[in-house]
Amino acid sequence: MSSDDRGHSRLDRRRNYAALLAHGLLGMTGFRLLQAPTFLPTYIHLLTGSSLAVGAASACQSLGMFVSPLLSAALAEHRSHVKWATVLFGGLMRLQVLILALMALFAPVEVAIFLVWPVLVMWGLSSGMQMVVFNLLFAKSVPVRRRGRLQGTRNLSAGVSVILLSVVAGWVLEHHGFPRGYGLTFLGAAILASVGLSFMALIREPAAVDVHAAGLDLRARLRKLPDLLRSDRDFAGFLEARLLTSAARGALPFYIVLVSERFGVTGTRLAALTVAFVAAQSVCALMWGLLGDRSGFRAVFVLALGTWILGSLIVLWAPVFPVAYAVFLLVGAGLSGVLLASQNLVLEFGRERDRPMRIAATHSLSEAAGVAGFLGAGLISLVAPIESVFLVSTVLHLLALRKLIRTVDPRRTAQEAATDQAS
User: Helices 254-263 and 39-48, interaxial angle, to 10°?
Assistant: First the structure.
């Protein structure tokens, strides 16, 4: 029996799957609406009137997510249970979305311009803290060969509800405009995400067996971090690919900026593009998950990057607005595969006891690359045609693809090690 199966009865697994699906259906719905490269970037663009600010807003979130994962790992790596830490940090994330909604509803635009930045940083901080403990909880609660299917189903169910919510949000924006329409949209997202979080408390979490001894402080763990990253050549290759894709992610909020500049964007068009993006994310997440369970998530990463690259090339050409739907379909499909593969691959490298710091280090370094990517994309959009943002993003994706092709899937390495032990 693998460590992933340890301590689980069939009843516990079914209960955990149901809780995680309910959390995905509601909790992910709210955040998926705000993380789509449509509503929040458009709000920031309308609030500030600056394309640089669109990149800076995403950079603020990435900055917070860069700082906090290592602290979260240091708090979690000697603990046998992390469920309530997941609930706590998840609650802090939802509080930031609520503040963002109230700010859009009640704060004057002149004040909101200054308040939005610390809120986005705090959102990133709490998100980084929650990401580490949630992944630890997920890894203990779901066997490795069922993770892709469950995550794909979570994404699909959340996607259906996001599509419905996007239609409602488009109607709200058409009738209430800026900023009130955006405030109501953010408020709905905060409420749904909060209801979804309550299902996290229903998970029956097995105790972790292989944990670090308490008392090793964060500085001591950070000194050992380079050895952890260098100990596995294939993990290093995966990490380099992840950093490159994180930097390339800087182009994400600029798809809607480019479409808006070329063709104009109404509330209805914004909702329709969000539906296309989320539908592709959701349907393809299930397909990526099934492929990952069967063939490994390295294959998912490679194919998803190719899909995203195709979307970036098409947006450079797009002569009429309907082509934007194809762009958002391809980018949504590619992004869902990249995120799913990144989240799962990091769980399959190395020992269980090093998993918290490995997750945290990967995420922190990726978000540092994300900060550079978002700020770089914003600066490029100021000094060069906005199409240059997508050319740079495509080059970074091609470099990541080259790294991945040279990396061995950790599942294959584990299978070879198990075969050697058996013989």
Answer: 70
Alpha-carbon distance of 178 to 112, in angstroms, equals 12
Outline where DSSP puts E strands in 6-61.
none
**Helix, strand and coil in the chain, % to nearest 5:** 85, 0, 15
Degrees, nearest 5: CA angle 186-321-31: 20
Name the CATH topology of 10-206+225-415: Growth Hormone; Chain: A; (1.20.1250)
Beta strands in 17-158 (DSSP E): none
Instruction: Report which of 49, 40, 96 is spatially closest to residue 68, judged by C-alpha positions.
Output: 96
Rounded distance between C-alpha atoms, residue 309 and residue 288, angstroms: 17
What string of DSSP letters covers 291-314? HHHHH-HHHHHHHHHHHHHHHHHH
Render pLDDT for 241-286 as a digit per residue (tens, 0 to 9).
Answer: 999 999 999 999 999 999 988 988 888 898 899 989 988 988 898 8
Q: How far apart are CA 376 and CA 341, in angstroms?
A: 25
Residues 6+ apart with CB under 8 A from 184: 101, 105, 172, 176
Q: Smallest Cα–Cα separation from 375: which of 392, 397, 361?
A: 392
CB atoms within 10 A of CB 287: 17
Going from the C-alpha of 310 to that of each of 8, 394, 404, the distances in angstroms are 42, 9, 18
- Please report which helix (H) or strand (E) contains residue 200, including its range: none
Q: Which tokens in the block code for residue 51?
A: 């394309």
The domain limits of the chain are 10-206+225-415
Q: Per the structure block, which two tokens stand in for 211?
A: 């944990």
Closest by alpha carbon to 168, among 176, 156, 179?
A: 176
Q: Evaluate whether 123 touches 96 at the Cβ level (below 8 Å).
A: yes
Q: pTM to 2 decimals?
A: 0.77
Q: Cα–Cα distance between 373 and 232 in angstroms, integer?
A: 26
Q: How far is CA 250 from CA 181, 271, 366, 387, 408, in A?
A: 26, 22, 12, 13, 27
Say which DSSP state 201 is in.
G
List pLDDT tens digits, range 30-48: 888 888 888 999 999 999 9
